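INFO  loader      accepted 1 record
INFO  loader      residues=500
INFO  predictor   begin
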Amino acid sequence: MAEEAAVRAQAETVRRLKQDKADADEIAKEVAKLLEMKAQLGTDEGKHKFVLKTPKGTRDFGPKEMAIRERAFKAIISCFKRHGAEVIDTPVFELKETLTGKYGEDSKLIYDLKDQGGELLSLRYDLTVPFARYLAMNKITNIKRYHIAKVYRRDNPAMTRGRYREFYQCDFDIAGQFDPMIPDAECLKIVHEILSDLQLGDFVIKVNDRRILDGMFAVCGVPDSKFRTICSSVDKLDKVPWEEVRSEMVGEKGLSPEAADRIGEYVQLHGGLDLIEQLLQDPKLSQNKVAKEGLGDMKLLEYLTLFGITGKISFDLSLARGLDYYTGVIFEAVLLQQDNEHLEEPLSVGSVAGGGRYDGLVGMFDAKGRKVPCVGVSIGIERIFSILEQRLEASEEKIRTTETQVLVASAQKKLLEERLKLISELWDAGIKAEMLYKKNPKLLNQLQYCEETGIPLVAIVGEQELKDGVVKLRIVATREEVNVRRESLVEEIRIRTSQC
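INFO  predictor   done
INFO  writer      dumping tokens
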């Protein structure tokens, strides 16, 4: 038959394309054509097997995972609010040109959307560039804001370490013209507060300045045109050894071996405020205007002494943060390896927060190039969440996935109406209450439901209780039962659950 011959020919085309390692889009197009032809033939082969899975680099979050996640969000949001931040939201996709040219070598990780008629769009890569666009578009020159939302990166996922293609970012930024380093110091204080509050273990906040890096590159003999690409190489030092970074600089990026070796001497330096003094005395670096400016501002890190957090701060010349838009201080919080009795091997999740100063980004969106100085921090919630999830699994702590305070139950049959009346009274009073969706549930089943879900109280209605105008309140943990006057029930539940 002609149709079968056409299917065989199409199958051969697909085989040939795969063999020749043709473009993935072309192969996908021809495979789709083949499946359509098979389907028209009506053969079993044409029935496309449907695989139920989430896309690569994404995951579902069940009730237990969401309960852990909400704990973390609550701690982060409460810190942002404590520091006086307002909240904003922006679209999940932006015009492609808004995002282009802002992320250096990471631009290749942006998800471009198919042209839907008129506008070329991309999914947002972070929350900082949309924030800068929002400021420029609305002519805002002064705001302290936080923004928690999903971002998207065509990255190579490493999901056990909290690296995804779709993930949340929790950003706090201060925009406006202020005296040097005061808002920057507050951002570092926020990182310290959040990581301490979440009890993730020991951590260090590495700090550097883009101007010190640029000055260092200049005195080491890096051509201006290579600053950003060499910066991107230095940024890998927390993941790979210096030898690999050096060979990338020299072999792939064409830097002279002498310049690379000079960079190597600097990037291995880290310390406290004393290192800043040491570098200000450095014969080469102290002669570079840009580096001197950066070192001068870094001296103002003494504000951190007043905040009482210098014990967790390390001035680290290897810290680069690859994004193009940073102009001043940059920082990154890293969890330190620790031996945890609950864990068989120490967790390695890399950076859990990062940020810095970006004074030029808003000006890139302004027709007259008007700048709005900004500094901000992004909390790596996915990595933090990975740690919390693994720790809770290891500790076998039972996690409640609801906030129900009381289950309305009955000990006898034909009391559905009374249960419905009582639960309605509780809901109207703002009490979180549940009941089983059966007309005549067994009391044992109702009590077992409370045990399984962690509901602390049971309000039991029975014929005798109805006659006496009381409700029997059972405390699930101790199995103690008390009769409570119906009009006092709401207050009794509130008192007892506030102690839980």
